[in-house]
Structure formats: C-alpha cells, structure tokens
Amino acid sequence: MWGQLRQALDVARTIELRLDWLSDDAEIAKFLALLRAGRTTRTARATFIATCRRREAGGKFGGTIAKQLVHLAEAITAGCAWYDLEIESSSKCPPELLDVLLGEGRQIASAHFFQRRPKNLRRVAADLAHVQPAVIKIAAQCDSLAESMDVLRVARGRKNVIAIPMGEVALPARVLALREGSALAYAPVENATAPGQATLEAMKHLYRADALRRKTRVYGVIGDPIRHSLSPVMQNTGFQARKMDAVFLPFLVRDLRDFLRAIRPFGISGFSVTIPHKQSILRHLDDCDPMAAAIGAVNTVVVRGAGKLYGYNTDYVGVLRALERRIPLRGSRALIFGAGGAARAVAFALAESGASVCICARRMAQAKALARAVEGEAVERPRLRREFFDAIINATPVGMYPHSANSPLSAAELNCRLVFDSIYRPRTTKLLQLAGRRGIETVSGVEMFVAQGTAQWEIWTGERAPEAAMRRAVLHALRNEEKIAVR
Ligand code: NAP
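^ thats the input. predicted complex w/ NAP below
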C-alpha cells in the first residue's frame, strides 16, 4: 500500500487511503505510523482521505463501528485532512460523538448502491446532507448509459458532491465525471475497489479525465465486448499528438437504443462501431456512404448538426492502404478466405481497385453470394493447392488470440506472392509464420487496423492523422499484451 501511495503521488493530488484493504488492526496502525513518520514535502502537498469501509457497506473492514471510528481518528492524527464515513455507520453514531472523535477532519458522507441504482437519487443526496458533512458522495451501480448519466446529474451545478457511476457500462461516465461537476473521480493504482474503474494511469494519461471541459469533443467506440479494444489508445494518441481538445472513450453497448439515446447527453461527435453492431447500426442512420451501404456494414459514424447520423466503412479504406503499398492491385488475382463482414469489406475494396477477386469459405453458398456481389469467383477449397494467387487474405477469426496455434490455411495452400492476415492479435499469426517460412511476403492485420483507424480520425477531424504516433501506440499496447500473455 505504501508502494502504491508513492506511485499515486506522482500522478494525483488527492489520495484515498483504503485502510479496510489492510489485513488487520495491527497493519492499519503500522501503516498510519509510517504515514505520520514519513511525511515529506511530497506527502505534505497531497490531500489524504481516510476510508475504513465496513463489510456491511461493501468494504473489507470486519471490526465494529467503534473500531472504525478509532482508525479514522488515528488517520486524521497521521495527516489525513478528510475521512469518508458511509451512511450505514454514520446513521448509528450520535453527531456529538463524531464531532469529538473526528472533528479535526472534514467529512465525506457516502452512500453506495452495489446492486442497483436507487430511483430517487436526489432523496439520497438530501439524506446524506442531513448530517451536514463537507461533501456528499453517491456511488451507484448502473446497467445502462442512461443510468450512468442520471448518477452524474446529481453533481451538476452543485459544489461538494461526488458522483460515481459504477459498473462496466459506466466507464465513460466515470471519465467524464469531473467535467460534469463531480468534486472527485476515483481511479485505482492497481486493484480496482469498485466495478468499472479505469486505472489511474488510464484516467490521467489515456483519457486525461482531469483536463476535460464542456467544450471537449467526445468520440468513442461501441461494441460488446469492448474492454480489449485498442481504438481508445490509437485515437486518443492521435488527439494528443495534434493537441486537440477531444477524448475517445470505450462504450460497452449491449442495447443500441441505449447508446443512441446517450449521444446527446454525452455530447458525442462521432463513433467507431465494432462487433456486434456493424450491420445493425445501418437502420439507425440518417444517411450512409454508398460504399458502406454496398458492403452492408458501417464502422464509422459522424454525428452531424441536430444529431443526424452519417455512416462510413473505413475497413474498406484500411484494406486498400495496407495492401496497395505492397502490390499493384489492378490486374492482380486475390483470394479471400472467409465470407463474413471483414471479407465483404476486403472484397469490395479489391474489386473496386481492379483486382480479380476469388472467395473461398467453409460454406460455399456464402462464398458464392459474396463472389456474385463483386463479380468475382467462388473457389472450392481443394483448388487452393493447385492454383496461384498474387495475394491471399485471411478474413476469418481462425488463429486469433488465444487460439494463436491455429492457421486457417496449410502451408501447401499458400501459393502466392503475398499473405495478408486481417487478424492483429497476435501481430504475427501462425498463418503469417507459415507464409514467412515459405519466403512469401506478409502483411499483418495491424496495418489494416491502423489504416482504418486513421481514416476514421480524418473523417471526424477533417485533418491529416498523425499516423506514425498512432501506429506506435497500437504496437506498444500489443507488445505489452503479448508480454503479459507469455508470463
Ligand atoms: P464474421 O462476420 O463473423 O465472419 C467470419 C468469417 O469467418 C465467416 O465467413 C465464417 O464462416 C468464417 N469462419 C469462422 N470460423 C471459421 C473456421 N473455423 N474455419 C473457416 N471459416 C471460419 O467476422 P468478421 O467481422 O468478418 O471478422 C473476421 C476477422 O477479421 C476477425 O478476426 C477480425 O479480427 C478481423 N478484422 C480485422 C480488422 C482490422 O482492422 N485488422 C477489421 C475487421 C475485422 P461462417 O459464416 O461459416 O461462420
């Protein structure tokens, strides 16, 4: 905990000490003694909040309320200017007792709702304010973006209110909490203390939560799952490299209508769309780029004046940017393995560039349908061993992490000049390894991912994307992931 405290001091001015996370009374006493003895100019500049949350209120402290108050009193003596006391404890203590024991500290009166958000948040706020604390804090589980915005609204226009929307779906609201008027936003150095928290590192450096203003433009990516998306790293790096006042957030979206209703209150200017919404978003658009309509999938939406939604497909652009640097596409013969969403974008991109497109898929009917749409040819799998292509493109998820030992095609089926794998986790798939061993040129899905992302960035901002910085950020994140996976 001392180590985490030192890390937090590098990044934040206000630090909550969760005394209840220490294992017993003796450890709490030891930690507070260290805090008292170890006060330096660095710790003196920081504001500490002591919290010793009891189990009854969702914390880890198993002792009595009396013992909780004693620890908080010791924490104040050790240098904590603030203490957080949950309503479950404060409602059982006479105010005079709190005054005698903790009067030297300033009180945050808190209420936590880990199961579901209470209907009347204003009533909860009024109950908390009853004991006249310096600040009130409400943390509530949210199951939709609309609920997370409701929680933030409690803080809007009021000083001294901390609003914490909890749950995975509430991460964007957590990032925007300070901008919406919450007195504090919480982030852990290491261990999350509530569901849906972003780490301190991510809050400060990836989302710059403390620098967001009303006029900051908000973008995001919608999908389910969304936690592992690399788009926030890539797009925020782009904004920061160009010093733009904009932020890009991951929206866990299970129900598209919930997100569409959140566009206005969150002030969203544009968003990326990923699995499973790339097709279903089409019917909610006001207008759509003709190529995206032909492909039947949209991965980029611009929110225009009056909330009108305009859709694009930049997977299509991504394929072209990734491939045309390597081989002349006009007149080439390309085989696409797979006939799903990505395969459609690749097929339309290649056909549009003058390549002759062949489709091979495990379901021949799908292959034939896509081949017809781009005036190409459907190819039966056994022919792959006998035929030559300029490029072979994998558009299936076979070989994607954690099934990285699999390859969609065997070495004998790779009769071509270039192999492109649309997968980017891992960076070098089994398919690319097989191709490399046969001396075939390879292109990783990272190239397509970065290219479709920079195209999105350019659509939203109208400026040229800082591509090198965005690529570096994606590669850095992937390398870190791969290191963790090996460990
Ligand atoms: P999708 O719509 O579900 O299509 C997947 C295709 O792969 C379908 O044709 C499916 O056949 C086929 N397939 C699945 N498992 C297979 C197997 N074991 N053997 C043979 N074929 C199999 O998915 P998608 O959106 O097109 O995504 C496909 C891949 O592209 C994913 O790995 C994704 O990461 C990648 N992608 C990359 C980028 C990028 O920027 N680099 C962008 C978009 C997508 P059935 O229809 O018979 O199931």
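The chain has a mean pLDDT of 95.
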